[in-house]
Amino acid sequence: MRGKFIVLEGGDGTGKSTQLSRIQDVLLEKGIEAVTTQEPGDTSLGKKIRAILFEEIMDPEVELFLLLADRRHHIKHVIEPALARGKWVLCDRYRDSSMVYQAMARDQDAGWVYEWHIRAGIHLVEDITFLFQESMDITLQRRKARSVGTNRFDDLPLHFHRKVAESYLHLAKGNPHRYVILPKGETPECLTQRITDILMERFLGEKGSR
Ligand code: TYD
Q1: What's the whole-model pTM score?
Q2: Residue 112 beta carbon below 6 angstroms from any ligand 1 atom
Q3: CA dist., res. 124 & res. 114, Å (int)
């Protein structure tokens, strides 16, 4: 049976990346094999694209074309093969990151971003998307504390990060069948429990422990 495509979305410093391996571990305890991956930059080609994206200043349209190249390659070489082997794929960011960062948070309609995905042959739809949220104070502290992985997106002004958070919420509320909006201020332990309970219930019909 085909695996499930599970995406974690949210602003920088909302705690998504910490959850990836935690969720993977809990799923494994339950006998479900999951692979963790991220965008941009999971593949060898993707790492090169990521470096260009983070080092060079460019228009949002050019950013999108690089992200689409990374995404198409990532789907073909990592995501689809894992799903076809029945594995669940836990992906840190996917298409909605482009909708938000390249368009909505810059006060642009995201329609063109969606269109370019179709033109690039990217049709894979998420089975479920978790929206991570955290207060602006906490995300700012976390971004400042990052010594590695700092990128020029992290350094964008606070009002941009505020727009990112608002745009995600808007997107999530408009797609309630696919999105789960996570609460702010929960411990990592509680979040892992909440997420894995939801996954078990949604995909295996098992009631969680909450
Ligand atoms: P990363 O260091 O992976 O941070 P995070 O842990 O917050 O995901 O940086 C990814 C950055 O790239 C992040 O600031 C968002 C940005 N990004 C886009 O602008 N568009 C996209 O489509 C994706 C996938 C990421």
Answers
A1: 0.96
A2: no
A3: 12
- Say yes or no: CB of residue 150 within 6 Å of ligand 1: no
* Assigned token pair, 190: 């509680």
Q: Which two tokens stand for residue 6?
A: 């599970």
Burial of 110 (0-12, 13-18, 19+ CB in 10 A): buried
Angle at 56 between CA 52 and CA 57, to 5 degrees: 140
pLDDT in tens, 78-135: 999 999 999 999 999 999 999 999 999 999 999 999 999 999 999 999 999 999 999 9
pLDDT for position 102: 98
Residue 183 token pair: 């609460």
Pocket-testing residue among 8, 9, 12, ligand 1, by greatest number of atoms within 8 A of Cβ: 12
CA distance 20 to 74: 17
Nearest CA to ligand 1 atom 2: 149
Give the tens place of pLDDT for each residue, 140-189. 999 888 855 567 887 888 999 999 999 999 999 999 999 999 999 999 99
Name residue 119's beta-bridge partners.
Answer: none
Tell me the CA–centroid distance for residue 35 and ligand 1, in Å. 19
Asked if 179 and 172 touch (Cβ cutoff 8 Å), the reply is yes
183 upstream amide cis, omega within 30 of 0: no
How far apart (Å, rounded) are the C-alpha atoms in residues 206 and 38? 27
Average confidence (pLDDT) over 33-52:
98
